[in-house]
Amino acid sequence: MKDREAIFVEFITALRKREKEDSKSRGEKVKLDFFDLLSEQHIEGGQRWSKLKERLETDPRYKGVESSALREELFKQYMDKQAKCVDVDKERELERQARIEVSLREREREVQKARSEQTKEIDREREQHKREEAIQHFKALMSDMVRSSDAAWSDTRRNLRKDHRWESASLLEREEKEKLFNEHVEALAKKKKEHFRQLLDETSMITLTTTWKEVKKIIKEDPRCIKFSSSDRKRQREFEDYIKDKYITAKADFRTLLKETKFITYRSRKLIQESEQHLKDVEKVLQNDKRYLVLECVPEERRKLVMFYIEDLDRRGPPPPPTASEPTRRSTK
Fold first, then answer.
1. Largest Cα–Cα distance of the chain, in whole Å?
2. Can you tell me the distance from the alpha carbon of 159 to that of 146, in angstroms, rounded to the nearest whole number?
3. Tens of pLDDT along the chain (333 residues)?
4. Could you tell me if 185 and 151 are in contact, meaning their C-beta atoms sit under 8 angstroms apart?
5. Is the distance from CB of 184 to CB of 140 less than 8 angstroms?
6. Closest Cα to residue 254, out of 204, 210, 297, 305?
7. Which key words tag this protein in UniProt (predicted)?
8. Domains by residue range for the chain, with CATH
9. How many other CB atoms are found less than 10 A from the CB of residue 280?
């Protein structure tokens, strides 16, 4: 009996629960249907329920709500929800507009920065162009007015300032002008030195032992000698440097000749010890080359170079034999 009663109670409880859930579900559906009805009316924010309900009374979704009070309450809920949606939309729109404004300001800053950098670059290029023009004007001025490599900046500057072209170089600082002047004078000196040495190269009587006293009588009237310097001491110093350079070059060329001469070998020192004729034979072979003849004026020094080379070959001994790989390569061909 008790089991039946318990089963019955359980059944009734489940039934009531299901009815309650069904009622709640129906109530939720009625509510949603009513909200759909309201959404179709395009209700404005200030719309009053008393005016609106007259348009809705014939709609089943209106009638589906069980009481007038509930309808008005649902209307208020709907309006509150719509107001919140509007507020959210407005907030989102404001945020979107704010992001757009930030982006536009950032873009404007980037554009302004790019324009500023471009303007600065143009200004730099314009300034550089003006400086290059000023340098060219100043170089042209010096080319016309500074012809001597002995010119001094302190004296020359006063003369240059008198020329109207001096103002064309006003962008240049004093130190820059002095630097350009020194470069100009150095270029003049280099050019005159090259011409003077060219004159010495063309003077056939000059040997490695020729003195300045001997050569100056021959070249003193040549314009290249006169333009080089008015100082005889300076001319002599340059001549002696020229001879020194020629001597160094001649010895280097002669050493190259000795290396090229196959007649001279590591046996040559022993052959000379046995007979001086071998040394004469070596010199006879060498005398066919101008690199030997150019040292004709210093025969003792030339012979020392020959003997030093022969003694060096003797110390090093015979050359190493061909590598083992060379015959192998030939046999495989």
1. 160
2. 10
3. 557 777 766 767 766 666 566 556 677 888 888 778 778 777 776 677 877 777 777 788 887 887 888 888 887 888 888 778 776 777 787 888 888 888 888 898 889 888 888 888 888 888 889 899 999 999 999 999 998 888 899 989 999 999 988 998 888 999 999 999 999 999 999 999 999 999 999 999 999 999 999 999 999 999 999 999 889 999 999 999 999 999 999 999 999 999 999 999 999 999 999 999 999 999 999 999 999 999 999 999 999 999 999 999 999 999 888 764 444 444 433
4. yes
5. no
6. 305
7. Coiled coil, Repeat
8. 1-105 (1.10.10.440), 127-187 (1.10.10.440), 233-316 (1.10.10.440)
9. 11
Tokens 């208020």 label which residue?
A: 76
User: Could you tell me if 278 and 268 are in contact, meaning their C-beta atoms sit under 8 angstroms apart?
Assistant: yes
Residues in Cβ contact with 292 at an 8 Å cutoff, skipping those fewer than 6 apart = 254, 257, 283, 286, 302
What residue has token string 């040559």?
268
Helix spans in 146-173 (H): 153-161
Encoded tokens for 298: 């210093």
Token code pair at residue 38: 């309201």
- Contact indicator for 261, 226 with CB cutoff of 8 Å: no
User: Is the Cβ–Cβ distance between 23 and 61 less than 8 Å?
Assistant: no
CB-neighbour burial class of residue 79 (10 A; exposed 0-12, middle 13-18, buried 19+):
middle
CA distance 19 to 120: 83
> Any idea what DSSP says for residue 173?
-
Tell me the two tokens of residue 114.
């790019």
The token pair at 61 is: 């979704």
Q: What burial letters (b/e) apply to 264-278, b meaning 16+ CB within 10 Å?
A: beeebbebbeeeeeb
**How far apart (Å, rounded) are the C-alpha atoms in residues 143 and 189?**
13
